[in-house]
Amino acid sequence: MESDEELFAPNSSLLKIIPSLIKDLFYYEESSRLLSRFLQSDVSGLTQQRIEGLNPALRSLAIDEDKSVMLTLMLGRLFIDAFEMLMDKCVEFEVCVEEIENKGELVQNYLSGDFNSKVPILVTAKQKMSPFPSSKRVNEEPIDAVRHRVLINELARLEAGDQEASPPDFGIYQVFSVDLKSWYCNCDEYQDQMADNSENHPEAYRKEKGEFSLKSMEEIISQSRGASGLLLDILTSSEIPTRHKSPLPLCSHLLAVIICSYNRKIELYRVK
Ligand SMILES: [Zn+2]
What pTM was computed for the model? Predict the structure, then answer.
């Protein structure tokens, strides 16, 4: 049994609870069954007719409902945004070498925390721009509305016989660079957490709280005794020791890439 101290230590939720919730978060289900379950509020007989017309052999991506509820309660907007990016296939791994056949395999290695490949892999997450800063977006489109939109698109895709979902081409998107190896993203959401938010404090305080509060990954992990698994492997596999703020910053883009890591068997991303 873990003590309260261990459970509430900084980074405990990231290192212990979140991995158990995002592991096997997605699975495949018969498309017509999935669509009828979630689009039943569309009382129009037309939608029902369209669903009934689908080939029963078709499968669509489904999310574990219990885990999705827990993640939304714990992470709110962060999770909803990550979910939306994954459903729209907005996470992309670019293998930076021409004429190579095993790009998919190199990406799988990267996602399993093996960063030894000599071929650089650039990871980007494309996100629809919101008129609101992330902290003000809590009440924006709830996860049910996102899922409803995703499944309406899925129905249209299946009817059109598309094998692969294309990202929606409406709206304005912003592209962010994510690096799992150094636990980094160039978005404001991440950068704001790295900043000290202490403009109002004297310089001595800022120094103490800012520069000197950066910890090595080993220190961060030792505070969360009992943490184990893939995320820990990813965080400790960097050859270049980096210092991080604790609690570790987390943005929707890093979260989306970690979800890809923990659900590697499912194609939640694109390879270029
Ligand atoms: Zn980010």
Answer: 0.85
